[in-house]
Amino acid sequence: MSSKNVLTGAKTFFPEVEVVPFEGKDSDNPFAFKYYNPDQLISGKSMADHFRFAIAYWHSFCGNGADPFGMPTRNMPWLNASNPMDRAKDKMDAAFEFITKIQAPYFCFHDFDLIEEGHSLVESEKRLQFIGDYAKEKMAASGVKVLWGTANLFSHPRYMNGAATNPDFSVVAYAAAQVKHALDISIQLGAENYVFWGGREGYLSLLNTDMKREVAHLATFLHAAKDYARSQGFKGHFFIEPKPAEPTKHQYDYDSATVIGFLKANGLENDFKLNIEVNHATLALHTFQHELTVAAADNMIGSIDANRGDYQNGWDTDQFPNNLGELTEAMLVILQAGGFQGGGVNFDAKIRRNSTDNTDLFLAHIGGMDTFARALIAADKIINKSAYVSLRNERYASFDSGDGALFEKGKLSLEDLHKLAGSSADPVQKSGKQELFENILNQYI
Length: 445
Ligand code: XLS
Ligand code: NI
Ligand code: NI
Description:
Bound molecules: D-xylose, nickel (II) ion
Strand order of the largest sheet: 5-6-7-8-10-12-13-14
Order of helices and strands: EEEEHEHHEHHEHEEHEEHEHHEHEHHHHH
Structural class: alpha/beta
Shape: globular
Radius of gyration: 24 Å
């Protein structure tokens, strides 16, 4: 139920919780941060600036708890109004109340998270303009910003065979029109980045699919979108969000390595970086830290979608992050890469179907933010206080000078290497010390 805030008289959807304070690790208040202290400096940068936390509009304010086996479970009083305009405004009031109370500086959205899609392109555009104006007011009043916007090119039945990769040109054109509107509202709201997650850009069966042609269409589509946004003054980054499958059997943006290869093959690598999601990494049978490491090598860690999968279930469960070991390893990669390229930490996570208290959304985000804060503190210490970095560098010390350095520069031929090996003693066994590295990680967690 919505009610009135006693102090301000304004309508409130989360009357049970006020602004979530930092109280430190000895606090027993479930509605306080134990580790996330926005102003605390870690290596000279505030925690708030390290993370740039964002709330995902879709899971937090649209997701109703329905699953393929059951009806909605969630109580969402912001959806009670009788027309789509009022519903969208109420939803936005609820969103901004939550985002401010949880102290997140950003949110992320799909076009039709903000307002329900209209019955025609023209009507949808009108609706987006209407809610865009309201969002501008709410953002100005609260200081909350947009980390990234995107278009939902996967829910509507017209996209059942794909959007940019649909075999029917009329659907590709429709998707382009939708992306134009989504770019327009993102630019209007000062979005710092724009995301493409190709949910249906893949195939269900290879028998009816011309993969080469579809992937070429995807590249052409992305070029057109980028050129349009740049012509409208958009200076931010574009991100591709890899995922191997679901809802398609195979998605073309499979994983970091595949996407980087695709971007480079198509001349998109200067405008696009990656938005890497934990649960998508594990669906690709990689670790999250693997996906980050692949991206880091090309300076492509744009942003992350924070969540976690389930060790036993093979789908995108989108649970809130709480795995400290996993996130510490991830923060090690992110910190050593110099942080995010334009992005931040977006909670692409949903409360469970049976988490039905209004306040569960707070508990979920508090847990996620605190886990990230602990991981940051630990990773920073591992990098700056422990022998971790020097131990890893030592493994490669033979390339720092002499023949190893010449090899790295490409100065030695196969004959040179043959001669060198023949004139030196046999290689001496050197331990990889994996357990030592693991112990160091554990020591600082
Ligand atoms: C789905 C994706 C989606 C994107 C945004 O698995 O994670 O939520 O982040 O379209
Ligand atoms: Ni995501
Ligand atoms: Ni996902």
